[in-house]
Write a structure and sequence with these properties.
Belongs to the helicase family. RecQ subfamily. Keywords: ATP-binding, DNA-binding, Helicase, Hydrolase, Isomerase, Nucleotide-binding. This is DNA 3'-5' helicase. The structure is a single chain. With about 700 residues, the chain is α/β, with parallel strands linked by helices. Helices cover about 40% and strands about 15% of the residues.
């Protein structure tokens, strides 16, 4: 592996002329390739080159591959294949290629009708650049139709956001590992460029190793002089929402407000709209939106039709708005590397942009989840492999079939299959997934190392939120930037917050947000499949045993209910005011639900799934009084329940521990099943089945707290 300290390259006069023409077309008549950009382009003009560029956002990494593509195409090479993670990035890149005089195209879910003509143009040589996602690259149909036809013909392979190739990075994606398969299919003389702005030394070494031992690594300083970083501390989760509502109109230009969860993005956007209406236009942006809607919102922000997008990390890599004036984080990301990547959206084409982080002690729970969310659980993997064993090589298993076979959630099945494909244990074919015959073993030391790295990164973010030292310097150091030094302009260097960020949220704003958020409707979708395994039964839950769609009073870590939860979900006697708020919340949820009941409940049955029998009973009594409902009881034995049970084991615990005390009290009635708290919904699912077996006509679940 080489770097710029020992390796420099220059372009011939002819090649430099082509490169300069590309740069002028993209960045203006006065633009020229910088020395380090020229080094990268010159290297990529040579056969078998492997180049890894780690440079700050806005450095001009894409200019390198456009210039290299133009040179190679002029010299008769085949098209460039760009592997890129986001549709928004692809759209920007297609436009940039056009300005550079190159014809680029992308194959994605939004342009299926164009695939045939694009593939024809690709084969005929009319397309200079093809952009694809790593997921598309891993698709067997794409491989058969497109990659096989390009075998040996690709003129340049570009791996954008290459940190995602490494499972030591903050954004590892199993599909990115399929890029190595493409490398093997390439003509060995095809140059390869990998680019990223967010790779520390360990990730850089890992990616470079995957590219090849002769990889040229070009690292540059990562400080961003246009960004003024600040930490706004000592805010509760609810106060953070109010702070954004109050301060958003004062922030410069338009920008992005990041949240850690989809729920927070949607709820904060609703709060801003409720208080400011059309005066401060915003929208929620999450990965769950249709691609066309995401594209519309990206364009609206780019055109300054919106003050801000309230977004999850789905809006990050690749989104390019040079005059983005601010980035605010409501909650700290778990990694300084991912934080650097997200704040890098701001200030790319302007001299000053405001960056504010609003941390809370509630963030740690989200960090803990993300630290282990992608680590395979051996028991679940083995259950999945057992399910696959029931299918032969000529009968691939589909994801829905494996979900039904194993009782595992579909998203978990999809992730594990991709991870197993990286290990060569399974293979994706056109009609599903098959075993390869290779055994799987859990590499505990490797995964313990990954979790350890993630926890150390979380410690760095704690140091960032405490203001231990210059904020920009700390981010640079987390990326192993040797040029890290105090920036002189962040809130730590200045010793205070800049003027637009200092004011505390108004009390009236806090109360308005509480009223709004407590009035939200949270639908509780019933489980549809039995888990198999230790539970025994698997497959679809019969309709005659299922619950109706229900409602949740408190969803996850809802900040508007935080103090109420502390005052009621306790081993001590519930705080009276908090208990009254919870009773009122349950009645309000029932009132909003009333219009969509299949039939009005006439019996309420409490279920102390989390062990809060007194609390659940008091709320059930209150609901029964207000709604003039009868009462019936379940007996609940929680023996054997722990938070780390598998899905099947937990369902078995509830099957053995829940009994309908008096079946005659529920027979023929519509039952309101009122449960205290659950994350899995298995106690509700099992209790509903037992009530239906006892003759209940329908079961309507009301869950007080849906835990994350």
């Amino acid at each position: 592996m080489a770097d710029t300290s020992s390796t420099t390259s220059t372009l011939t006069e002819a090649r430099a002329g082509i490169a300069d023409g590309v740069i002028r077309a993209i960045a203006g008549e006065s633009a020229r390739l910088r020395a380090d950009q020229e080094t990268a382009v010159a290297a990529l003009c040579e056969a078998s080159a492997r180049v890894l560029v780690v440079q700050a956002t806005g450095w001009g990494k894409s200019a390198v591959y456009w210039a290299a593509t133009a040179i190679r195409r002029a010299e008769g090479a085949g098209p460039t294949l760009v592997v890129s993670p986001l549709l928004s990035l692809m759209r920007d890149q297609v436009a940039a290629a056009s300005r550079a005089g190159l014809r680029a195209a992308t194959l994605n879910s939004n342009n299926i009708d164009e695939w045939s003509s694009i593939e024809h143009d690709l084969r005929s040589g009319a397309i200079d650049v093809l952009l694809v996602s790593p997921e598309r690259l891993a698709n067997p149909g794409f491989g058969r139709r497109v990659l096989d036809g390009l075998a040996g013909q690709v003129g340049l392979l570009v791996i954008d956001e290459a940190h995602a190739v490494s499972d030591w990075g903050h954004d590892f994606r199993p599909d990115y590992r399929r890029v190595s398969d493409v490398l093997q299919q390439l003509n060995p003389k095809t140059p390869v460029l990998a680019t990223t702005a967010t790779a520390n030394a360990r990730v850089t070494d890992d990616v470079a190793h995957q590219l090849g031992e002769s990889t040229l690594v070009l690292r540059g300083p990562l400080a961003r002089s246009s960004l003024q970083l600040a930490v706004v501390d000592a805010l509760s989760p609810l106060d953070r929402f109010a702070w954004v509502v109050d301060h958003l109109p004062k922030l410069p230009g338009s920008g992005i407000v990041y949240t850690l969860t989809v729920s927070d993005a949607q709820r904060l956007a609703a709060a801003i709209q409720e208080v400011h209406g059309r005066d401060v236009p915003v929208a929620a942006y999450t990965g769950g939106l249709e691609a066309g809607e995401r594209e519309r919102l990206e364009d609206a922000l780019r055109g300054n039709e919106l003050k801000a997008l309230v977004a999850t990390s789905a809006l990050g890599m690749g989104y390019d708005k040079p005059d983005l004036g601010f980035v605010v984080h409501v909650g700290s990301p778990p990694s300084p590397v991912s934080y650097y990547q997200q704040v890098g959206r701001a200030g790319r084409g302007i001299d000053h942009a405001m960056v504010a982080l609003l941390p809370s002690d509630a963030d740690a729970g989200v960090w803990d989840y993300f630290a282990t969310a992608t680590i395979p659980v051996p028991e679940n993997v083995n259950r999945l492999l057992t399910g696959l064993d029931g299918y032969g090589p000529d009968q691939p298993a589909t994801v829905p079939a494996l979900e039904a076979e194993t009782g595992l959630r579909r998203t978990r099945v999809e992730l594990m299959l991709k991870q197993l494909a990286v290990d060569g244990v399974v293979d994706r074919v056109e009609r599903g997934w098959v075993r390869t015959g290779k055994d799987w073993t859990f590499d505990a030391a490797h995964y313990d190392g990954i979790v350890g790295v993630r926890r150390r990164e979380a410690d760095i973010m704690r140091a960032y939120t405490r203001g231990d030292r210059c904020l920009m310097q700390l981010l640079q150091e987390s990326l192993d930037d040797p040029s890290a030094e105090p920036c002189g302009r962040c809130s730590v260097c200045l010793g205070e917050l800049p003027d637009p960020l200092r004011a505390k949220p108004e009390a009236e704003t806090v109360q308005a947000i509480i009223r709004l958020l407590r009035g939200e409707v949270h639908i509780l979708e019933p489980r549809k499949m039995w888990p198999g395994g230790a539970f025994g039964a698997k497959g679809r839950i019969p309709a005659e045993l299922g619950a109706e769609p229900g409602r949740t009073v408190i969803y996850a870590d809802a900040p508007e209910w935080r103090e109420v939860l502390r005052g009621t979900f306790t081993d001590a006697a519930p705080d009276p005011d908090s208990l009254e708020a919870l009773k009122a919340g349950a009645v309000a949820a029932l009132s909003r639900w009333r219009g969509s009941w299949s039939s009005r409940p006439d019996v309420v049955v409490p279920l102390a799934a989390a062990g809060y029998g007194r609390l659940t009973g008091e709320i059930a009594d209150h609901v029964a009084t207000v709604g003039r409902l009868d009462r019936a009881e379940l007996t609940v034995d929680r023996a054997g329940f722990t938070d780390d049970l598998s899905s099947a084991e937990e369902a078995r615990v509830w099957r053995d521990g829940i009994t309908v005390a008096d079946p005659a009290a529920v027979a023929g009635h519509t039952v309101l099943l009122l449960a205290d708290a659950s994350s899995s919904q298995w106690p509700i699912t099992v209790a509903a089945a037992k009530l239906r077996e006892s003759g209940a006509a329908a079961v309507l679940p009301l869950l007080i707290h849906k835990r994350p």
